[in-house]
């Protein structure tokens, strides 16, 4: 984009219109200033039918592609938004960079460490293009407030993070169907907690991990070497530590929370996963409804993350001075390729530890 095009919106093409891609597409179509949803892409007719039904109906003008190569060949698309199966991310990022596009890609960067390294290497050849990996928890207002407080010294020197990602049980077997492409519970769920821990602890290097797991309900996960409940410990250089828990079997909803402990205090983020501020007082006691899914918990974070990406790209492509500063702050908050590489490296080591029953030294 040239400087004289600065008033033009960023034209985005979303690839993948499944569980999460549709949410991203709706955000980009209607809720992100400076962005236009120019195209969508999915090999599935059901997904394209959804786009035909839902997006034009509410006034969106865009093109539909079945083939990712066609999306990349569309010269009117400035940025691609990858919400495709995790095993495809690495090659799709490389292809998008070579096609001259900016890239937003959902987590994880890849299920394979060497693939992550290849993307980091390739991206260095395209310094003018933005690449951000979607660790949206960094944009959640509560997580961001905790991060700012840690940075300001509110709890002294942070040295320990406890963090969990726990999904509502799905008795219909969604998690078993998702297992062949998810990378397993540690690369799919815990990868968020790993990123949060590194982010809150100042990006220390991991030195050793140990993981264990159990199949509490979903026997079908065993054939993929996966579990529905996993715990892990991660040691970092400089005496820093993290403890992780991930579950697919919660009875009450999506229960995602983190805690950071420092030498002069601690911060807890989201320990009671309330859907809203209503308390029910009845014969069973006093309770709240829980956030049902990850999207209900992090809807605002997904939106702020998209707004920050679009602002960052528009600023680097020739925006105004003030916008550039705001965008630099937003871009700095997001996970870089190097952050995403480290998250996969640690998540992969946890999967190895689960498989072998041994600690893994990194
Ligand atoms: N940030 C989060 O908390 C979060 C939550 C859920 C999913 N995710 C990530 O989002 C990604 C998608 O997850 P999902 O749950 O939406 O999966 P999904 O299976 O529901 O959707 C995947 C979509 O990608 C499409 N697709 C497959 N191959 C394609 C190709 N070559 N080109 C274009 N589209 C293609 C599929 O047709 C489908 O529409 C995964 O990487 C997952 O890890 C992140």
Provide the fold topology.
Layout (H helix, E strand, L loop, with lengths): L9 E6 L5 H10 L4 E7 L3 H10 L8 E3 L2 H6 L5 E4 L6 H10 L3 E5 L6 H11 L7 E4 L6 H11 L6 E11 L5 H9 L2 H16 L5 E9 L14 E8 L4 E10 L6 E6 L2 E5 L10 E3 L2 E3 L6 H23 L4 H13 L3 H20 L3 E2 L1
The chain binds nicotinamide-adenine-dinucleotide.
Nicotinamide-adenine-dinucleotide binds next to loops.
Can you describe this structure?
The protein has helices at 21-30, 45-54, 68-73, 89-98, 113-123, 141-151, 174-182, 185-200, 294-316, 321-333, 337-356; strands at residues 10-15, 35-41, 63-65, 79-82, 102-106, 131-134, 158-168, 206-214, 229-236, 241-250, 257-262, 265-269, 280-282, 285-287, 360-361. With 362 residues, the protein is an alpha/beta fold. The strands form three sheets. The chain has a seven-stranded mixed sheet with strand order 12-11-7-10-9-8-15, covered by helices on one side. A six-stranded parallel sheet has the order 3-2-1-4-5-6, sandwiched between helices. It has a two-stranded antiparallel sheet with strand order 13-14. The radius of gyration is 20 Å and the shape is globular. The termini are far apart. The mean pLDDT is 93. The structure holds nicotinamide-adenine-dinucleotide. Nicotinamide-adenine-dinucleotide binds at residues 15-21, 41-44, 47, 68, 83-86, 88, 106-107, 134, 136, 188, 294. One of its GO terms (cellular component) is cytoplasm. Keywords: Oxidoreductase.
